[in-house]
């Protein structure tokens, strides 16, 4: 079978596309770094204005998580979950869908992973993989609900995902406090998962204490690369990008926008389900109340900081979790409380929003010009 040689025009188009993609990645990384530095600078000024020693506080916050291997493990454990949640939000965002449903998808994934890992006897390797597959499927199913509501019924995705979060959390709490609660235990939690279903701790690989950090870190990195390839190298990724850029033009070009919207929610839900599996199989080893804390909504900040680029989400997730870990250490060793970390996080959100305003204005002006013509 012979292939048609590439013409000079096609070769030039491909070269320009690759150049544009590399430039976009560099811009996303630069914007994320600039936002981080600006937020840290504002935090520095806030501490200075309140009479604290910002140099000492930042020294502890920025070096504390690396002081001991256990602290490094705590940082990587948090970064794994947070980055997966950021990735789960970034995909719907690329399709211009404001999905706030990572929390419900995470809890659905955690329940599915725990049900398999606790009650279903499996061989060693399958005992790890099958619960994760179940978690991804449960998260995808939970994502499909608001996706279909938006795509087929025209429902507001923000309201749909928020209401679904409330339902999922209440169902989760009921199950953990009732049918799944470990018999005879005074504490509220489920039975522990089977030993073969636990994710291997990094401590066993490196021979140093790294807390609950585990091989889920590798899963997170593989997921980020896979999603980047999906977005940049596949027809579905092209449809998602086109739908996010201009849904009307995408529909005019033959793209089935409702189906693309559904797929973006399904893929995001599957990734959030994996975050739930990581918490169950790698961190807690069982179901516990308040499993995710505030991580689900902080994943939104990570996605926004990374401008929804899956590769940059990894960098943003590592930084954001480092900031969380450093803030706890700063509070312990200085007179500065973790409130300054909240200030820095809020500044990041404001700066990211400010970055989005020029693009929004440009799109609106372009639409008005087209309408005038």
CATH topology of the largest domain: ABC transporter involved in vitamin B12 uptake, BtuC
Quickly count the domains.
2
Beta-strand share of residues:
under 5%
Average pLDDT level: 87
Spatial shape: globular
Tell me about the largest β-sheet. Answer: none
Low-confidence stretches: none
Helical fraction: over 70%
Which secondary-structure class do the elements indicate? mainly alpha
Do you know the CATH architecture of the largest domain?
Orthogonal Bundle
Radius of gyration: 22 Å
- The top-level CATH class of the largest domain is Mainly Alpha
Number of helices: 14
Q: What is the number of beta strands? A: 0
Can you give me a brief rundown of this structure?
The protein has helices spanning 8-49, 54-63, 69-94, 102-119, 124-153, 157-177, 202-206, 216-233, 235-245, 247-252, 257-284, 295-305, 310-333, 339-372.
Explain this structure to me?
- One of its GO terms (molecular function) is transmembrane transporter activity.
- Pfam families: BPD_transp_2.
- Its main location: membrane.
- It is a multi-pass membrane protein.
- This is ABC transporter permease.
- By secondary structure, this protein is mostly helical.
- The chain has 2 domains: 1-52 and 335-373, no CATH class; 69-334, ABC transporter involved in vitamin B12 uptake, BtuC.
- It is built from 14 helices and no strands.
- Helix 1 (8-49) packs parallel to helix 13.
- The longest helix has 42 residues, at 8-49.
- It is globular.
- The termini are far apart.
- The model has no long low-confidence stretch (mean pLDDT 87).
């Amino acid at each position: 079978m012979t292939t048609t040689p590439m013409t000079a025009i096609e070769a030039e188009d491909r070269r320009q596309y690759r150049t544009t993609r590399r430039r976009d990645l560099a811009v996303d990384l630069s914007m994320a770094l600039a936002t981080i530095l600006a937020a840290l600078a504002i935090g520095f000024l806030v501490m200075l204005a309140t009479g604290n020693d910002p140099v000492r506080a930042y020294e502890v916050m920025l070096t504390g998580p690396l002081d001991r291997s256990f602290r490094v493990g705590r940082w990587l454990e948090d970064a794994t979950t947070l980055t997966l949640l950021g990735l789960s939000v970034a995909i719907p965002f690329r399709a211009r869908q404001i999905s706030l449903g990572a929390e419900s998808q995470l809890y659905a994934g955690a329940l599915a992973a725990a049900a398999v890992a606790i009650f279903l006897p499996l061989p060693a390797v399958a005992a790890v993989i099958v619960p994760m597959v179940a978690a991804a499927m449960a998260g995808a199913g939970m994502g499909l609900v608001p996706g279909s509501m938006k795509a087929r019924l025209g429902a507001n995705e923000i309201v749909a995902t928020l209401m679904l979060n409330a339902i999922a959390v209440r169902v989760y709490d009921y199950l953990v406090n009732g049918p799944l609660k470990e018999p005879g235990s005074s504490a509220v939690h489920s039975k522990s998962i089977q030993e073969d279903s636990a994710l291997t701790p990094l401590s066993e690989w490196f021979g140093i204490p790294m807390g609950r950090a585990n091989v889920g870190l590798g899963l997170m990195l593989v997921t980020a690369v896979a999603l980047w390839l999906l977005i940049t190298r596949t027809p579905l990724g092209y449809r998602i990008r086109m739908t996010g850029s201009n849904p009307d033009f995408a529909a005019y070009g033959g793209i089935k926008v409702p189906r693309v919207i559904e797929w973006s929610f399904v893929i995001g839900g599957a990734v959030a389900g994996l975050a739930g599996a990581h918490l169950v199989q790698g961190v807690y080893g069982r179901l516990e109340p308040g499993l995710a804390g505030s991580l689900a909504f902080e994943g939104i900040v990570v996605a926004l900081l990374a401008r929804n680029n899956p590769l940059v989400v990894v960098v943003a997730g590592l930084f954001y979790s480092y900031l969380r870990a450093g803030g706890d250490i700063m509070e312990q060793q200085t007179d500065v409380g973790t409130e300054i970390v909240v200030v820095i996080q809020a500044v990041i959100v404001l700066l990211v929003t400010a970055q989005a305003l020029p693009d929004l204005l440009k799109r609106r002006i372009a639409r008005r010009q087209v309408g005038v013509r």
